[in-house]
Amino acid sequence: MTVQSHRRRSACASTTGVQFAYGRWIVLLFATLWLMGLNQAFARGAPESFADLAERLLPSVVNIQTTQKATAQAQTPQFQLPPGSPLEEFFERFNRPNPDRPQRRATSLGSGFIVDPTGYIVTNRHVINGADEIFVVLHDDTRLEAELVGEDEKTDLALLKIETEIELRAVGWGSSQKSRVGDWVVAIGNPLGLGGTVTAGIISARGRDIRSGPYDDYIQTDAPINRGNSGGPLFNMDGQVIGVNTAIYSPNGGSIGIGFAIPSRLAEGVIQQLREFGTTRRGWLGVTIQQVTEEIAESLGLDEASGALVSTVHKDSPAAAAGVKTGDVIVEFNGRKVPSSRKLPAMVAETGVGQEVAVQVWRNGDVVDLTVKLGELEKVDLASLTTGTQQQETAKTETATLEGLGLSISGITDDLLKRYELAENTKGVVVTSVEANSDAAEKRLNPGDVIVEVNQKEVTGPADVMAGVEAAIEDGRKSVLLLVDQGGDLRFVAIRFKKKEG
């Protein structure tokens, strides 16, 4: 082969390599651009404007004005001072109502929205609570007196009704369950008396429990919400109501981007019942429950800390009739898993009164299937409920020290009944001392508490408690489960065994 032909072949190979390299980069470039375009097609970017949405929704949002006869005390500013302050007596006299001061009418402002063109309007209960008169101001500034159809304290919702010849534009409910964290939302209301105010933001979180009631399941949003927005709607981008703006977290009274709305999943059902019955009709199971902690789950042989632990079964309740027992863990209700004790009340309340539902409980290491016919919560006098009868013999009066638990216990005696002001019919074993820095102390056990059960078995004396502890140790448990009566309140407590030194 000549030198010239060799060079020619080398040049051809080099050219081919360059062409291949350029071709590969072109393919990669087009693939990247295609993927970017596909991603943009599926991504939900920020809207260019909320103007069209706001224009369509504003006529459906109203201002709520109420008047209430104010007492002299309510007119006087109230000053809060730390206990023991040298100025406390002065300000106590300053805050004292003046009987000679004339009474006047106080006004408050809030928001609401039209859910039916016949004049039904949703708002918060706290907006109209205690009002002597309620007025609704429409988008065109028409002011109409409203009638209270019904209110629900547990969810802070109320339903109003107005009569008018004006054509009203209603909005519909959307699905709060389908809404996702990060979705855009729009709030419209009457903040600080500035009606027809539109703000926007995103869903910051879901399922928030702010300890305002038994059914807390709030949507959290950063859409600016201020005083006066209460009762107003939180819209999704389709113009559907997915929440009722109810509360804000604010150290200074203004918006800091943490607002809370009642989800439509809960609000829609409550409003429907208020319209139909004038009150709510919630399902009632008839149990007192508590959280299943990791320690309680371990002591009961559960694989995970979920479900709702039954600490009390109320007498003559649907649960009692169905065979639910103290110490059961409700793991499924009406075909749905119970993730925590906090979720169960809402699951029961959402279920129809009189409906028969399947309830699955964990009992003594086995799953037990039960059927419960739910009662009606609103017809129950919760204050008069009593726990089931404790089937116990006369208590033994011996004492014992459980070093592994950091407790000293005793049977029932007249002296202990008087010392700890216990009822004469108290059954179980009395805690007489709690070792400092023990797990029992950390779990807030105190002298005077009464141990009713150990590992879901009733006890009548210290010997029963010791037998239950020994059985737990033999089973390889790290803790023992106690049912404790603390001043009439029953709760389960899992106490870990102390580690042996050396």
Short structural description:
The chain has 502 residues and is of the alpha+beta class. Helices cover 24% and strands 32% of the residues. Among the domains are: 184-277, Trypsin-like serine proteases (Thrombin, subunit H, Beta Barrel); 283-384, PDZ domain (Pdz3 Domain), CATH 2.30.42.10; 399-496, Roll (Pdz3 Domain), CATH 2.30.42.10.
Percent strand = 25-35%
Please report the total strand number as a whole number.
28
Structural class: alpha+beta
Give a short account of the largest sheet: 7 strands, antiparallel
- Strand order in the sheet with the most strands: 5-4-1-2-3-7-6
Assigned CATH architecture of the domain at 283-384: Roll
Low-confidence sequence ranges: 38-43, 72-82, 84-97, 383-396
Instruction: Please tell me what the overall shape is.
Output: elongated
Span between N and C termini? 88 Å
Mean pLDDT: 82
Give the CATH H-level superfamily of the domain at 283-384. PDZ domain
How much is the radius of gyration in Å? 32 Å
**What's the CATH topology label of the domain at 283-384?**
Pdz3 Domain
Helix content: 10-25%
Characterize the structure shown.
Among the domains are: 184-277, Beta Barrel (Thrombin, subunit H); 283-384, Pdz3 Domain (Roll), CATH 2.30.42; 399-496, Roll (Pdz3 Domain). The protein contains twelve helices and 28 strands. The protein has helices at 3-42, 51-57, 72-75, 88-95, 125-128, 264-277, 294-300, 318-322, 344-349, 414-419, 439-442, 462-474, and strands spanning 61-70, 104-116, 120-124, 133-137, 143-145, 147-152, 157-161, 184-189, 197-208, 218-221, 233-235, 241-248, 259-263, 283-284, 287-291, 308-313, 329-333, 336-337, 356-363, 366-373, 375-376, 399-402, 407-410, 429-434, 450-454, 457-458, 479-486, 489-496. A seven-stranded antiparallel sheet has the order 5-4-1-2-3-7-6. Strands 22, 23, 24, 25, 26, 27 and 28 form a seven-stranded antiparallel sheet that branches. The chain has a six-stranded antiparallel β-barrel with strand order 8-9-10-13-12-11. The N and C termini lie far apart (88 Å). The relative contact order is 0.08.
